[in-house]
Amino acid sequence: MATSRSPILLTGAAGFVGQALMGVLREECAERRVVCVDRIPQPLGSVQCDAWHVLDLGDAKVAREVIADERPAAVFHVAGLARGTDWDALYHANVVTTLTLLGAIQELSLDCVIVIPGSAAEYGPVDSDRLPVAETTPLRPISPYGVSKAWQTLAALSFVAQGLDVRIGRLFNIIGPGLPQSFALGAFAHQLREVRDRRRGPVLKTGYLGSDRDFLDVRDVARALVAIADSGSAGEVYNVCSGVGLSMQQCLDILIEVSGLHVSVESESANDSAAILSSVGSNAKLTELIGWSPHIALRQSIADLWTEC
Description:
seven-stranded parallel β-sheet, alpha/beta, Rossmann fold, 38% helix
């Protein structure tokens, strides 16, 4: 990122990744003004920023006004939908907002670094002999969410040819304190909390637990995105992942162990034929070219997730 005191713009600041990123920016860029944008007011107890704008980035006029007023030197565009099957909602949240944001930056001729998080869902199913997945792997998403993220990536990178400095951090599975219930381990933690509080019996109900996933703590994710802004290159995509795959069963076992509760698990025995059995990424590009490496072990991430329940 530029070393000037020009502002940093953070979209989706109220979200899971947004709050972690806000914390890292406060640590590593303490002298910089950080401006936050979200569709909701700043949540109570959230990491503080210098200005908070409530707006829909799909509103081109309003978005341009904020960007023109702040004139950021760096933008972290983490706003969007991380789940869902509604094509219109996903397209608006993940693609339209990106086009609006980049269009405004281009129109204003701002000199800034733009980092956008992609998703491992863009890759779709990958044969086992091609794991871990490298950034050169063709994109073959099979879910509406994965398709919307692939569209977002392609749309964003098209602006590089027009002079914008866009960089993609392609995120795999995220874990850590504050994980929403819309994610599997967040839902498991919620069920365990209900068991702990005696609001349900000691039985967890889960989906298929045999899939392998590549988990990375949200704080390491945030540090990776900042590192990409600092040391990455325009037009490049970087996998943000641990490089290690674990089954959902192994992760749930750790969560149950750190909770100290005695529960039984009722899981679906068959996997959805449309699901991705194994999603493990290679972080070699990020570690070798950027110098980033993960610091928080999976067990610690799960323990912190449980502590904050």
